[in-house]
Structures are given as structure tokens and as C-alpha cells.
């Protein structure tokens, strides 16, 4: 499967990653190569194989339901690009 | 030609934990902005989420109550999308291997018909933060206190075919999660959120395109919104249009739904297993340990109230409408030695419930405890007060004026059962109403009610009505 200009522009919009006009062709080629690898992997028989959830053969450890964190919003907001009245600020979003 | 309605619900139940699903930050409602959002919740680099063990037991409990398969190996995935209230750029949720698999729930409609609704699955996930508008002109404020709050998303099969069925299912689930103690059910605070997927089709045809109704925080509005949406879709199709897949908001003021966002880009969430979290393994022993803590469920309780206490189906339904209500009632019965269960039920379903409704209180917040109400019922049973005086005593108890005994004492409300005192009252009233006595003797027996009324009035409501009646009949012979 190979990707063209239209697909790359669509993916660019979905991922919110800007792709320069002159780079589109190169990106399309790279993505097509990756998809080619997937196509090769498709050939493997995965019937009855449980999808791997994690490369480590280990089990999730659990935490007791206890509050251990303190309020650090001033410290955390000191490194935020913008904050006001204890809120993080972002460009206006209206639905 | 007729239309068939297909409705499926997605219910987000916030689990009653002290801390978040992946961090030790508090989940308490109403805290100052961002005071409960720790580095894990706000997605700082290098942070490692660790799963809260409480959410596992609560999920298993729901699974068992829905007669569902429990996912013995459940996996957390990342659902990727961009929004300012989602600081990590993904929501940690479950996709292919949820903690609760296919289950079912029986609902009962107003006309008594029953229907089984399938529950596709229930999966664990974290909530997002909250956007605040108008804080700074041209910018949006973000409060991340809610980010990382544990949610159980309960997804139904598209088995409901009317707004009434959808609401019956949602209400029953609401009741269930509260009985199980896994969610406080507070819809105003967003602890229990219902999203409805609504579509219409001609009988026998494939499913129509669905619209999703979101952010509706009362059952009444859910029902209205679904009805309006069904009408809108039918009118649209009949006038030659097509339904588009989108999220719609219900506008209660205008009783309409309007488009919130069109899923024109058919959002690809690029789910993949979260590399920060390992699979969760649940053993049979874990499941049995949770089963041992299973409380009596609403349906079983209702049936028992009818069989054990001899209550009507209606009373049993009202008294089991919440676990707190049912527990209050059972305490009341025990504290009054089950001498008059019907009287206890009547007080709960009338005076007590009316007072709660009037003041907008839940049973838990009632100013009168089960012990307090029992103290008053005991006084009705031993004839210290009449049912009428009891209302006065109850109102005073509600206002915090003391126990039933204290109030009866302080206000001098003790019923007059002394035969001599009652006889004096009867004689007085009969002597003052000679023409009515004549009328009674001439056959107008309904005059008896008039005399009783006069005597009760003369006694300030404190004469024992039974004794008054008895004595009157004897004297008028």
C-alpha cells in the first residue's frame, strides 16, 4: 500500500503535525515504506496468539487507595507557558 | 410506514475512591483549581502511573452484579486525541481487554413489562480536566483537578427502543452503582453521566446513522432529549435528508438538540497498549473475595420486603429506592420490634419522604435519625400520642427540638386516656349541643363525626379517638 499527497495532508491534520509543502512527497514515501513492512508482517499467521500488551512478562502492581500527593500547583505553574488565577492558560477553545 | 428506534447508552460512573486512578492525588469534589493535580495527572515527562487497587474490586463488584464475565487479564490502552483538558495527549483507558465483559440487566417499564438489556462491557479509564472560559479574555483556563479521576464506562448493547426504556435502564444502573457503593450517583457533580446513542431505521433494515447526546444531567431531560432527537431524525429523513454522525447537545430552555461537533474526520484515536502499565491479572480468589462482600441487590431486597414484611409492591419499591432508604427502614423496623411494620412503612413513604423532598435532602442528611423516628413510633404504638399529634411531634423533631419524648413532655402532647377526663369532655360537648343530639337520636348517625370533632378540639387533639368514639356511642344510646 502506498500513500499519496492527499493522505499525507489528511494524516497531518489528524495528528496536528505540520508537514511543509515541499516535504510532502518525502514523507509519503517514508510512510509508504513503513506500511510495506506492515504488509510483510501481515503474512505471519497470528491465529490463536494473544496480542502482546507489554514486552515485559510481568503483572501490574497495585497501589493502596491513599492520598499521598500535596498541592504543588504554584511550583507546577511556574514552568507553565501561561497561568492565571491558579488555572493553566491555553489559546481560546470554544465549542 | 413505521420507524424503529435504536438506543444504546454509555454511562460514565465515577468510582468512589479517595485518590485518583493512577496517582495519589485526592479526588475530593470542589477543591481549589489545580490543587489536586499532581505531576502524574498533568502529564509531566518521566512520571509513572501506578494503578489504584480500589478500582479493581469496585469493577469486579459491578461485573458480578451484571452477571458478566470478569476480564481476568485486562489491559490499559492509550486513546490519542488533542484537547487542552487532556494534558498527556491521550486518555488512559481500556480497549480490547476491558475489566468487565458481556453482561445483562433486567429493566421494568411503567406498565410492568420486563426487558433484558445487554451490557456490552465496562472498562476503566481516567477522566479529563475542565476548561474554564472567560477567566482571561481570548484565552481558556484549564483546571486539572478532575484529570485522572477513576471512571467506569458502562456500555450497553443497542437494545433499547424508546426514550422510556433508555431512562428505565439508566435509572436502574444509577440505583445499582449506589447500592454497590462504587459510585455516589451525584448527577449534578458529574459523578454519573449518561451519553445516549440514538438512531432510527425502517423495520428490517440495517442500523441507521446515530447521533450522540451528551452532557445531560437529569433523567427527565435525558428522556426529553431522546424523544426530541428521534423526532428530528425521522423528520429529517422523511423530508429527504440524511442523519450525520455527530455529537449533539440538549438545550432544555428551547427543548431542542443542536450539533456540538461533527465527526467529519472520523477521529482515529490510534489506540495502543500503554507501555507505562502492565496487564492486570485477576484470579478466581480475587473474584470470590469480592463476591463475599456483595450487598443485597435492589431486586432481591424489594422481593424480600414484600415476602418478609408483607408490604405492597409499591411500598417495597419506594422503600428500596436507595440503599440508605432501605437501611433506614430496616433499622426502624428493628428498633420498633417489628410491632407495626405497616405503620413504619407509612411514616417512611409519607411524612418522612415528604419532609426530605420539601427540604431537598437525601436520607443520609435527614435531621431525624432512624432511632429518633422509632422513638416517636413507639409512642404511637403505646397510645401516648395519636397519629395526628405524631405529625406535630415529627415536625418538631425535624426542626431539631429534641427527641419525641422530650417534645411530648415539653408541649404537653400526651394523649388523654384517662376515662374520667374523657367522659367529662364527652358530657360537656353533648350538653352544649342539644339540637345535634336530637338529630342523632332521630337517625342522623353521621352526627357522630361532628361530636368526635368537637371533643377532639376541646381536648386540643389529645383525647384518644378510639376511647372517645366508644364512649360517645354508649352515651347516645
Summarize the structure.
The complex is a heterodimer of chains A (95) and B (477). Chain A is an alpha+beta fold. Chain A is built from 3 helices and 3 strands; from the N terminus they run H-H-E-H-E-E.
Describe this structure in words.
The complex is a heterodimer of chains A (95) and B (477). By secondary structure, chain A is an alpha+beta fold. Helix content of chain A is 38%, strand content 9%. Chain A is built from three helices and three strands; from the N terminus they run H-H-E-H-E-E. Chain A is flat, with a radius of gyration of 22 Å. With 477 residues, chain B is of the alpha+beta class. Chain B folds into three domains: 4-286, no CATH class; 298-411, no CATH class; 419-475, Arc Repressor Mutant, subunit A, CATH 1.10.10.410. Chain B has 15 helices and 16 strands. Chain B has helices at residues 53-65, 163-180, 219-238, 284-291, 298-309, 313-319, 323-335, 341-359, 370-381, 387-398, 404-411, 419-432, 434-441, 447-458, 465-475, and strands at residues 4-14, 51-52, 73-74, 77-80, 90-93, 103-108, 114-126, 130-133, 139-143, 150-156, 192-201, 211-216, 246-251, 256-262, 272-273, 280-281. In chain B, the strands form four sheets. Chain B has an eight-stranded mixed β-sheet. Chain B has a three-stranded antiparallel β-sheet with strand order 5-4-15, with no helix packed on it. In chain B, helix 1 (53-65) packs across helix 4 and helix 14 (447-458) packs across helix 15. Chain B starts with a strand and ends with a helix. The mean pLDDT of chain B is 92. Chains A and B meet through strand 1, helix 3 and strand 3 of A and strand 2, helix 1, strand 8, strand 9 and strand 16 of B. Strand 1 (62-63) of chain A pairs parallel with strand 2 (51-52) of chain B.
